[in-house]
C-alpha cells in the first residue's frame, strides 16, 4: 500500500475531525492510491448501516447512533485542507431517519460549495427507500454528480442486496434525480463475478441508458469476509474491456471497467472532472454565441 506524506495528512485530518471514510469501512483496495493522492471518500451519517447487504463489509444495526450535527462543517473543513477540485461523499443507509439523511447531505454540499464554489461534488447515496422528495432535495442541493449504485443485475438483487433495496427502486431513484435537476450527471456501479450472465449485464446497461444515466462503472466483487457472499467467478480482463466498449457504443459519457475499479476511484474522478469542466465550457460558449447572434 502506498503511504507518503499526503496519505498521512489525509489520515490525520480525518482522525482529528472524527470523520469516517468508505475507504476504510468498506475495505477498499485502492485506499493507498487515493489517500496518497490527497483525497478520500468521506462517509456521512456515521459508520453503521441500517441495512445488511450480503456483499458489504460496513457494520449494521437497526438503531445506529444519531448523526453528528457538526459533520457537514467538519467535512467542509477537511476537504478545504486537502485542496482538491473533486470530492466524493457517500454514506451508510439510514432508514431510521425520516428523509434518509437527504437534508444532512444537502447541507454538506452547500457548505462545501460555499468554501470553494468551483469544487465538483459527487454524492454516492442510498435509494432513500424510494422517497422521491428526498431524492429531489439532494439533486437540487448544488451537487454535480448524483450517484446511486444498482450493484448487480435484476435477477440477483434479492440474493445480494438488503430486502429494502430493489432494481426498479434504484432505477427510479436515478431517473428522478435527473428530472429534478435537468443537466445533472447521474452515475451507477455494477459488481461482476456474482453469477451474472453477459446477457443480463447488457440488459442492465440498456435499462440504465433508457433513463439517461451518464456514467457506469464495473468492478470485480471481492469477498470481504467469510461471512459474506462467495465469489462465483473472477471475470477476465477481456470481459471488462468488452463491457467498456459496449457501454461507450451505447452512449454512456464515461465507462470505467476493470477488476479493481470501484464506484469512488481516483482515476475516474480525474476523468469526470475533465468531462464536466469541458461540457460546461462548451455550454457557456454556446450561450455566449447565442447572445451575440441575438444582439447582432
From TrEMBL:
SUPFAM superfamilies (alphabetical): Radical SAM enzymes (SSF102114)
PROSITE patterns: RADICAL_SAM (PS51918)
Organism superkingdom: Eukaryota
Radical SAM core domain location: 35-253
GO cellular component: mitochondrion
Pfam family, one: Radical_SAM
Catalytic activity as recorded in UniProt: [[Fe-S] cluster scaffold protein carrying a second [4Fe-4S](2+) cluster] + N(6)-octanoyl-L-lysyl-[protein] + 2 oxidized [2Fe-2S]-[ferredoxin] + 2 S-adenosyl-L-methionine + 4 H(+) = [[Fe-S] cluster scaffold protein] + N(6)-[(R)-dihydrolipoyl]-L-lysyl-[protein] + 4 Fe(3+) + 2 hydrogen sulfide + 2 5'-deoxyadenosine + 2 L-methionine + 2 reduced [2Fe-2S]-[ferredoxin]
EC number: 2.8.1.8
Pathway(s) annotated for this protein in UniProt: Protein modification; protein lipoylation via endogenous pathway; protein N(6)-(lipoyl)lysine from octanoyl-[acyl-carrier-protein]: step 2/2
Residue positions binding [4Fe-4S] cluster 1: 23, 28, 34, 264
EC class (word): transferase
GO biological process: protein lipoylation
Residues binding [4Fe-4S] cluster 2: 49, 53, 56
Gene Ontology terms, MF aspect: 4 iron, 4 sulfur cluster binding; lipoate synthase activity; metal ion binding
Keyword vocabulary terms for this entry: 4Fe-4S, Iron, Iron-sulfur, Metal-binding, Mitochondrion, S-adenosyl-L-methionine, Transferase
Key word Cell wall biogenesis/degradation present: no
Signal peptide start and end residues: none
ATP-binding is among the record's keywords: no
Main location: mitochondrion
Localization per record: Mitochondrion
Name under which the protein is recorded: Lipoyl synthase, mitochondrial
Amino acid at each position: 500500500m502506498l503511504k507518503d506524506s499526503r496519505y498521512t495528512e489525509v489520515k490525520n485530518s480525518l482522525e482529528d475531525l472524527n470523520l469516517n471514510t468508505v475507504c476504510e469501512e468498506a475495505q477498499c483496495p485502492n485506499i493507498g492510491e487515493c489517500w496518497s493522492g490527497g483525497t478520500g471518500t468521506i462517509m456521512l451519517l456515521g459508520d453503521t448501516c441500517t441495512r445488511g447487504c450480503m456483499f458489504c463489509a460496513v457494520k449494521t444495526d437497526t438503531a445506529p447512533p444519531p448523526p453528528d450535527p457538526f459533520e457537514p462543517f467538519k467535512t467542509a473543513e477537511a476537504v478545504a485542507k486537502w485542496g482538491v477540485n473533486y470530492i466524493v461523499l457517500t454514506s451508510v443507509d439510514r432508514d431510521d431517519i425520516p428523509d434518509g439523511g437527504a437534508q444532512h447531505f444537502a447541507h454538506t454540499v452547500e457548505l462545501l460549495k460555499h468554501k470553494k464554489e468551483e469544487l465538483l461534488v459527487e454524492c454516492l447515496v442510498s435509494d432513500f427507500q424510494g422517497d422521491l422528495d428526498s431524492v429531489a432535495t439532494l439533486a437540487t442541493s448544488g451537487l454535480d454528480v448524483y450517484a446511486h449504485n444498482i450493484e448487480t443485475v435484476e435477477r440477483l438483487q434479492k440474493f445480494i442486496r438488503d430486502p429494502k433495496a430493489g432494481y426498479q427502486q434504484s432505477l427510479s431513484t436515478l431517473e428522478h434525480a435527473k428530472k429534478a435537476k435537468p443537466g445533472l450527471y447521474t452515475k451507477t456501479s455494477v459488481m461482476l463475478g456474482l453469477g451474472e450472465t453477459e446477457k443480463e449485464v447488457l440488459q442492465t446497461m440498456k435499462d440504465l441508458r433508457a433513463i439517461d444515466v451518464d456514467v457506469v462503472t464495473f468492478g470485480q466483487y471481492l469477498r470481504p469476509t467469510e461471512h459474506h457472499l462467495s465469489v462465483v467467478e473472477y471475470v477476465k480482463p477481456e470481459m471488462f474491456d468488452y463491457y467498456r466498449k459496449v457501454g461507450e457504443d451505447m452512449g454512456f459519457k464515461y465507462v470505467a471497467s476493470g477488476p479493481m475499479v470501484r464506484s469512488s476511484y481516483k482515476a475516474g474522478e480525474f476523468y469526470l472532472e475533465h468531462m464536466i469542466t469541458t461540457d460546461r465550457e462548451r455550454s457557456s460558449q454556446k450561450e455566449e454565441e447565442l447572445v451575440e447572434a441575438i444582439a447582432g
